[in-house]
Amino acid sequence: MFSRGEPAAEANSTCNILRITDFSRDDWQYVLEEAVRSTSHRLYVLLQGPDLPASASAKLLEDIAEVLKPVANSKPRLDVVPLLPFAGWSEGQVANLTDLRGVFLDSNDTKVGTSYLQSLIKLRGETLPPLQGVELSARQLKAAPPNTQDGKPCSAEGEHASLRIDAHPQSSLAFDHVAVGGTFDRLHVGHRLLLAATALICKQRVYVGVTGDKLLEKKKHFELLEPYDQRATAAASYLKSVRPALSVQTGALLDPKEPTAAATEEGMQALVVSKETISGGETINQYRREHGFAPLELVVVDLVDDSAAVEGGKVSSTALREQDAAALCSRAADVAKHSEKNDPPESS
Q1: What order do you get walking across the sheet with 102-105 strand by strand?
Q2: Does a cis peptide bond (omega within 30 degrees of 0) precede residue 7?
């Protein structure tokens, strides 16, 4: 299932890749959790196998949500990028990812793993840094009972990200023009689930509505909010990291009373929303019906639960800003304490 090679790289590599070819294996989530812990910046998750569909489906997007679940549990800001062949990721393109450094190894299939790693090395450009194997701990490779996390039973609902759409789980979800919107401050696992679903169901063009700075002035720790251009660029870049051939257009959402491009563009076909913004999608469809446009297919992505960065039971940019504000206060206190300690005593 995963590649194996030599030599082994150090833990916590900046950018690694993990290959998953069999979601039926009981221990794949354990392996994924270890991969998340061992990656400091970006983790590519390559999904391959004979059962992989030729386009997105509700079932596949649920699998993507499961891939992102360990990130919510431990590193909500980690840049996890799902790679799929139908989204344009051939073996040669994977081999030539410029930031890739490590390939995670699995002792369960040494022959297949070694062959995969060696094939990437052969295809990799000579000017790029060499690839190394990254060993996973034996503890994480032990098989886990189905529907468990860290050996404890999990509820089937409400504890992980999932996708809801009024379609058969295996039905193809493929649209030429798709819209998505959000604030996208401090891009986190919830944003990435929303954007990954958008990229995987879209074949041509994505419109990304990004909340303008003016509408966010009442947000907690507004002074720490990333500016509009930074947030828009981050969202567009992530979409193209999942599906490089996409045409991505971003636009500022400046007035909640004004209809968005999702409402006014007749050729728009689908809208990806979170569970908490379904009503907004329904309002957009009402506007489209009133103006003679076909309603959009609403692809609804559930919220991502996490214990470390939550606000109302979901991963939240507000909670992440709260963490950053606390860290800034702590550093300022340390600097003040250090300065006070080193100040010369006042002369009498």
Answers
A1: 79-83, 39-47, 13-20, 102-105, 132-135
A2: yes
DSSP class of residue 69 equals: H
pLDDT over threshold 90, residue 164: no
How far is it, in rounded angstroms, from Cα 83 to Cα 290? 39
- Check: pTM over 0.85? Answer yes or no: no
Q: Do domains 13-144 and 174-301 have the same CATH topology?
A: yes
User: Which stretches does DSSP call E strand in 256-325?
Assistant: 270-274, 297-301
Instruction: Confirm or reject CATH 3.40.50.720 for domain 13-144, answering yes or no.
Output: no
CATH of region 174-301: 3.40.50.620
Q: At 160, is the secondary structure helix, strand, or coil?
A: coil
- Segment 59-111, tens digit of pLDDT: 899 889 888 888 877 888 899 999 999 999 999 999 999 999 999 876 566 66
d(CA 36, CA 38): 5
Q: Break the chain into its structural domains and give their ranges.
A: 13-144, 174-301
Instruction: State the alpha helices, DSSP H only, in 75-145.
Output: 91-95, 110-123
Q: Report which of 311, 203, 213, 290 is spatially closest to residue 247, judged by C-alpha positions.
A: 203
Closest CA to 35 of 141, 111, 130: 141
Say how far apart CA 250 and CA 206 lie, in whole Å.
Answer: 8
From the list 98, 99, 79, the residue with the least C-alpha distance to 39 is 79
Q: How many residues does the chain have?
A: 348
Are 118 and 131 in contact by the 8 Å Cβ rule? The answer is no
Contact 188, 320 (CB under 8 A): yes
* H-run or E-run covering 14: strand 13-20
> What pLDDT does 131 receive?
93
Q: Provide the strand spans (E) within 197-330.
A: 202-211, 247-253, 270-274, 297-301
**C-alpha to C-alpha distances, 90 to 148, 236, 244, 306, nearest whole angstrom:** 33, 21, 12, 33
